[in-house]
């Protein structure tokens, strides 16, 4: 029986065209019959990132209580979240259907390969979601959790398929080195790239730590072209770091072997003005998606920087443009239902929204 769905919200706006090597809006193409006798076809393009959140009784894709890989900070049901509506929303593109997740097909596609998420705790969010999605579909497969590269990189390996899903933790992608003056953020340096280029699918992410200051800032100085300063404009620094990463992709990545993906910027929900509730300062007690339209925020400039930098890369790089669809999900954060009992409107419950990110990733990898 087909699962019942009810339209919840609709994003307005025209599709944006991108070049083949480009980054934005990973695009499907579907061939459909143009006339009844099937003698002609036309190609219809589908933008996976323009659509609606719809209620779907078949969701979630897995039972989070049966997944042994979920970090306690993301395990909302374990820590007492009473409402389950946030688990029941499926992303529906306007002009097409996302493929239903087929873990075995993905594992066969990736057979003999290593897929690695490279970034901060948002990458951790998506990594744990994907591992749970795979585990739920092949629970009897031989699955090994280990730490590689001097115990610094957690990995889950599905032995029957020889597929490993790894996580490389880095806040800025570029280097932060401990020197005599303190911790220095080096905007022109990526030494970890020597490790990254050994993997087959690279999924990068960075943003959340760039604007943090005071005790939450993870460096004391910033270095550009050999010159050290105490601070600089953060958006400029963000662009410089991404440009260094882009140059590394063009110089070091073997495009015949390695696929490069950039996970778009994940929004937080600490300002109710973004969803027509001025005065609200967090995501507490939010139980349904926002119906839109999404209001411009400080993320807009950061997203533009990401797209601009990726468009300059000569080798194929694909953008999982998750920002707008995620901005609608004010309901999908842990809020206070986490191990620390703090108010978290930055990360996401697992199961939950990151599963949709991985559906989009799945569509990209199997197309």
UniProtKB/TrEMBL annotation:
<dbReference type="InterPro" id="IPR026057">
    <property type="entry name" value="TBL_C"/>
</dbReference>
<dbReference type="Pfam" id="PF13839">
    <property type="entry name" value="PC-Esterase"/>
</dbReference>
<comment type="similarity">
    <text>Belongs to the PC-esterase family. TBL subfamily.</text>
</comment>
<dbReference type="InterPro" id="IPR025846">
    <property type="entry name" value="TBL_N"/>
</dbReference>
<protein>
    <recommendedName>
        <fullName>Trichome birefringence-like N-terminal domain-containing protein</fullName>
    </recommendedName>
</protein>
<feature type="domain" description="Trichome birefringence-like C-terminal">
    <location>
        <begin position="98"/>
        <end position="363"/>
    </location>
</feature>
<keyword id="KW-0472">Membrane</keyword>
<keyword id="KW-1133">Transmembrane helix</keyword>
<dbReference type="InterPro" id="IPR029962">
    <property type="entry name" value="TBL"/>
</dbReference>
<feature type="signal peptide">
    <location>
        <begin position="1"/>
        <end position="36"/>
    </location>
</feature>
<keyword id="KW-0812">Transmembrane</keyword>
<feature type="domain" description="Trichome birefringence-like N-terminal">
    <location>
        <begin position="44"/>
        <end position="97"/>
    </location>
</feature>
<keyword id="KW-0735">Signal-anchor</keyword>
<keyword id="KW-0732">Signal</keyword>
<dbReference type="Pfam" id="PF14416">
    <property type="entry name" value="PMR5N"/>
</dbReference>
């Amino acid at each position: 029986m087909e699962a019942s769905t009810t339209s919840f919200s609709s994003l307005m706006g025209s599709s944006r065209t991108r070049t083949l090597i480009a980054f934005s809006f990973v695009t499907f193409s579907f061939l459909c019959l143009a006339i009844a006798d099937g003698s002609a076809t036309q190609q219809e393009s589908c933008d996976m990132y323009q659509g609606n959140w719809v209620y779907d009784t078949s969701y979630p894709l897995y039972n989070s209580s049966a997944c042994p890989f979920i970090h306690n900070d993301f395990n909302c049901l374990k820590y007492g979240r009473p409402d389950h509506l946030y688990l029941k929303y499926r992303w529906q593109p306007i002009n097409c259907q996302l493929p239903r997740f087929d873990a075995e097909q993905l594992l066969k596609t990736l057979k003999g390969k290593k897929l690695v998420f490279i970034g901060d705790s948002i990458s951790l969010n998506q990594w744990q979601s994907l591992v749970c999605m795979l585990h739920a579909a092949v629970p009897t497969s031989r699955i090994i959790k280990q730490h590689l590269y001097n115990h610094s990189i957690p990995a889950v390996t599905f032995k029957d398929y020889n597929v490993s899903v790894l996580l490389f933790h880095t806040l800025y992608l570029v280097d932060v080195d401990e020197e005599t003056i303190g911790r220095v953020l080096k905007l022109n340096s990526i030494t970890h790239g020597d490790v990254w280029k050994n993997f087959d699918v690279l999924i990068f992410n960075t943003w959340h730590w760039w604007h943090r200051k005071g005790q939450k800032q993870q460096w004391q100085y910033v270095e550009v072209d050999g010159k050290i300063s105490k601070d600089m404009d953060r958006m400029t620094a963000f662009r410089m770091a991404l440009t260094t990463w882009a140059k590394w992709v063009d110089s070091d990545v073997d495009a015949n072997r390695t696929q490069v993906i950039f996970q778009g910027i994940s929004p937080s929900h600490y300002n109710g003005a973004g969803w027509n509730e001025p005065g609200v300062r967090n995501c507490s007690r939010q139980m349904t998606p926002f119906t839109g339209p999404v209001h411009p925020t400080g993320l807009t400039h950061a997203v533009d920087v990401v797209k601009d930098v990726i468009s300059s890369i000569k080798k194929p790089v694909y953008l999982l443009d998750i920002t707008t669809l995620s901005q609608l999900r004010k309901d999908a954060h842990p809020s206070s239902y986490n191990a620390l009992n703090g108010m978290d409107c930055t990360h996401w419950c697992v199961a939950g929204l990151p599963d949709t990110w991985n559906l989009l990733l799945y569509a990209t990898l199997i197309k």
